[in-house]
Amino acid sequence: MTLFQWIVVPLLSVFLLLEIHGMRSGRIRRTVRLARILLWAGAILLTLFPNVTSKLAILVGIGRGVDLIVYIFMIVASVAWLHMQTQHQRLQRSIVELARSQTLQNPVKDLSQS
């Protein structure tokens, strides 16, 4: 193993174990937790066996393994960003609806008449 692998694999293993341990908490949906576990496990495997990415890249017509990882990251990051944007807009709409309903239930007194 290289120095990089000796440093990165234990670090990724800690993240993996934290995700596995967090399965019991139930605060995060199970599918999200499983996706994270697969992500950390995949990162460990690709760190231990870097030639796999090169072989996969050649298989799909990309020259280098690192290029394949970058392309996949760009796609996943874009999808995640769009999902977060959608969630943010949904949350904004909920806040506006809540504020409107609170205003209708408890109208503000006219301060000019005091």
Task: Characterise the protein shown here.
- Keywords: Membrane, Transmembrane, Transmembrane helix.
- It holds the Pfam family DUF2304.
- This is DUF2304 domain-containing protein.
- The chain crosses the membrane at residues 6-25, 37-62, 68-84.
- By secondary structure, the protein is mainly α.
- The protein has 2 domains: 1-49; 64-105.
- It is built from 4 helices and no strands.
- It has helices at residues 3-22, 30-48, 51-60, 65-105.
- α3 (51-60) packs across α4 (65-105).
- It starts with a helix and ends in a 9-residue tail after the last helix.
- The model has no long low-confidence stretch (mean pLDDT 90).
The percent of residues in helical segments reads over 70%
Shape: elongated
Number of domains: 2
> What's the total number of strands?
0
Mean pLDDT across all amino acids: 90
Structural class: mainly alpha
The poorly predicted ranges are none
- What is the succession of H and E elements? HHHH
Distance between the termini: 78 Å
Beta-strand fraction estimate: under 5%
The largest sheet, given as strand count, sense and whether it forms a barrel, is: none
Radius of gyration: 23 Å
- Distinct helical segment count: 4
